[in-house]
Design brief:
The chain is built from 3 helices and 7 strands. By secondary structure, the protein is α+β, with helices and mostly antiparallel strands. It has one domain. Helix 1 runs parallel beside helix 3.
């Protein structure tokens, strides 16, 4: 293996290790949030998603929205759910099955001001709102 290939492999390993560490730390924040919301008796609600076309549809999950625009939620199952999803005509009629994503420590990294921020801040704000 050439030195360049070895360097590339090493950079990839480091990047993947960092991503796993970030996901583990973010998941701890999510787990603490779910525990706290449950202990406080703050009810979940049926989550709704927005299709790329802009239409709102029902989903198969319950949880708590963590952004005012309802584009992200934490499920009662402890998963992190992006709520802007692709969809078809059938999805508009019957709803969508949400797919959990690995939680990030920084929500919407690289987004415009007000759209991105620390996951911990989004969760703390939602906890404060009850």
């Amino acid at each position: 293996m050439s030195q360049n290939a070895e360097d590339a492999r090493r950079r990839l390993e480091l990047s993947q290790s960092h991503a796993r560490g970030e996901t583990a730390a973010a998941q701890k924040l999510v787990d603490d949030f779910v525990r706290e919301m449950t202990e406080r008796g703050i009810p979940t609600e049926r989550l709704r998603a927005r299709l790329f076309s802009g239409q709102e549809v029902k989903t198969d999950k319950r949880g708590w929205y963590i952004r005012k625009n309802k584009s992200l939620a934490i499920g009662e199952d402890g998963n992190y759910y992006p709520l802007v999803v692709p969809g078809s005509l059938m999805d508009r009629l019957r709803g969508v099955r949400l797919q959990a994503a690995p939680p990030p420590l920084v929500v919407n990294r690289g987004g415009r001001d007000g759209e991105s921020g620390d996951l911990a801040e989004f969760l703390a704000k939602r906890l404060a709102e009850g």
